[in-house]
Design brief:
With 223 residues, this protein is mainly α. It is built from 9 helices and 2 strands, in the order αααααααββαα.
Length: 223
């Protein structure tokens, strides 16, 4: 049951976009088209899975003082692999994702899971966490892109759905992206009745980075 819980955490309870509010930039930028969004989601899932596994395997070898640079090198390696594969086999998707593909290296979802989970847990748990978070990210991108493409362009996966009705092109722009994003966050809160994340007390315990911050021990953390 623990393994299943780790896998499913990323779908709703700790959804990286709708709950943890990470990776907002690529989410808004690539969710204008379902094809691009799913491509970005699968690419990020591949990098999450690979980097989590490798970082978990190396957690006892990498010195604590240089762990972040080492994590970035591992993540950059997998991003390079997925970029080369897309460029070789899916050139249109590679061109459409553009700069957002190499920016996966500094995606806070991937680096955050490496620091918060993979560096502290066994390989299998880290792999399941990477898959779960990747699927949660992909699912969110799929929902957002479906809404934005259908309403904003009148198509879905490039297939024209209706004619005679002027699409609301603003939905494919930044304001529409933020609006859809906000609606989905509100929907998740409504479905879960706001209990997705347990309320924490103020101060260090209420900070998302409390688990990796030594400020409380050193007396440096400010509420």
């Amino acid at each position: 049951m623990k393994k299943i819980r780790v896998l499913l955490n990323g779908l709703i309870r700790e959804n990286p976009v709708l709950v943890l509010v990470l990776g907002t930039c690529p989410t808004l930028a690539t969710s204008t088209s379902v094809k691009n969004a799913v491509g970005m989601g699968l690419a990020a899932t591949f990098v999450l899975l690979g980097s989590n596994v490798v970082i978990s395997m190396l957690k006892k070898i990498v010195p604590d003082k240089v762990r972040i640079p080492c994590f970035i090198v591992v993540i950059a390696t997998f991003v390079t692999i997925v970029s080369m594969l897309l460029q070789a086999f899916v050139p249109p998707l590679y061109s459409a994702l553009g700069i957002y593909l190499p920016l996966i290296v500094v995606n806070c979802i991937i680096l955050g899971r490496a620091e918060m989970f993979a560096s502290k847990n066994p390989v299998l748990d880290s792999a399941l966490d990477g898959i779960g978070m990747g699927l949660g990210f992909t699912l969110t991108l799929f929902m957002m892109s479906s809404i934005r493409e259908i309403i904003g362009s009148g198509t879905w996966m490039g297939i024209k759905l209706y004619s005679g009705i002027q699409p609301m092109s603003i939905v494919t722009l930044a304001p529409g992206g933020f609006f859809v994003f906000g609606c989905l966050v509100a929907l998740v809160n409504a479905i879960t009745k706001g209990r997705v994340r347990k309320k924490q007390k103020n101060g260090c315990a209420g900070c998302p980075s409390a688990a990796v911050c030594n400020g409380e021990e050193k007396g440096e953390c400010q509420a």
